[in-house]
Design a protein that fits this description.
Length: about 170
Amino acid sequence: MATTSAARAHTPRASRVETVQIVLPGLTNVHGTIFGGMLMQWIDIAAAVAAGRHAGGAVVTASMDRLHFLTPVHLGEVVTLQAQVNFAARTSMEVGVRVFAEGRPGEKRRQATRAYLTFVAVDDLGRPRAVPPLVLRTDEDRRRFRDAGRRRAVRLRERQAMKGRHG
Ligand SMILES: CC(C)(COP(=O)(O)OP(=O)(O)OC[C@H]1O[C@@H](n2cnc3c(N)ncnc32)[C@H](O)[C@@H]1OP(=O)(O)O)[C@@H](O)C(=O)NCCC(=O)NCCS
């Protein structure tokens, strides 16, 4: 079956992002390890670019799931972030970001953290707008989509509960 360019453009692979950073002096805390907020900024940016590519326009961060820092990341280390859209609903998308650290370029990487963020595509007035459906090609795409659907259900329950408490 022929693949249309439109369908090809909306696979997780098509909007995938990989960025590489170095932990420079000024980005660390008093322990000589990366400031957590810096890592969160890099995660947010990589994920926003992937979501924006999928949506074909502006997106805003709606939420970031709980973040665990699995291993310290030291001054001078190389940090690689891989972001990809796992799930697209009507106007929102879940983006998964994996973060790896390595002592020197070429050294074995270790996973530093992983994050899931939800972005909403918006129009010029900041109102949610529809995004293209995600085209799932591989078993891995389908597994991530299923898992993301379960996480979305939890998030929406939490959002509902928060609205109930804070209006
Ligand atoms: C995100 C935002 C656009 C949603 O607007 P809204 O009027 O609440 O819109 P809706 O209730 O119709 O929700 C729109 C979509 O976002 C999803 N969503 C909204 N808040 C969410 C949250 N906290 N977590 C996960 N998904 C969320 C909804 O499920 C819905 O998804 P769907 O259309 O795919 O089913 C709005 O809350 C906003 O502008 N927030 C501030 C964003 C911001 O400033 N981010 C930081 C800087 S980028």
